[in-house]
Amino acid sequence: MTDANRPLPTATEASRPYWDATAQGRLLVQRCADCHKTQSIPRLFCRHCMSENLQWDDSKGLGTIYTFTINYRAANEHMADKLPYVVAVVELDEGTRMMANIVNIDPQVLRIGDRVRVRFLPLTQALSLPQFERIETV
Question: Domain containing 31 — which CATH number?
């Protein structure tokens, strides 16, 4: 299976601004205008206070690996040629967590707490997938 055949996310009413931004190389997080908490999975309401008063904020695209797993068996046919690959929960500097692949590194050297930055894998002209790569800290 090639990238052309890769399963793609489907934008919903709640997630359309998020996916539109990824196509421009921007990572967005939702912020509740009432309780001021962030969330990374787009919703029509705040998961903290249930308010529908949400706004989109640009993320710096920087974070820390909160947890991760190294996959040695492909989740689907498309991932078979990418083994082993890393799926991580990244805690963004804006305070929310999101799941993404960690790329461009030997998985064996990754550690919880490593700093990462977003990069985008273009899937179509209208859609890019946020992924992260480790950044060296001094």
Answer: 2.40.50.840
Q: Which two tokens stand for residue 62?
A: 């920087």
pLDDT tens sequence across 62-121: 999 999 999 999 988 888 999 999 999 999 999 999 999 999 999 999 999 999 999 999
Is 24 inside any structural domain? yes
State the burial class of residue 28 (Cβ atoms within 10 Å of its Cβ: 0-12, 13-18, 19+). Answer: buried
Provide the domain count of the chain.
Answer: 1
Instruction: Provide the edge-to-edge strand list for the sheet that holds 54-58.
Output: 38-39, 28-32, 54-58
**CB proximity list for 114: less than 8 A, separation 6 or greater:** 64, 65, 134
Q: Is it the case that residue 1 has pLDDT exceeding 50?
A: no
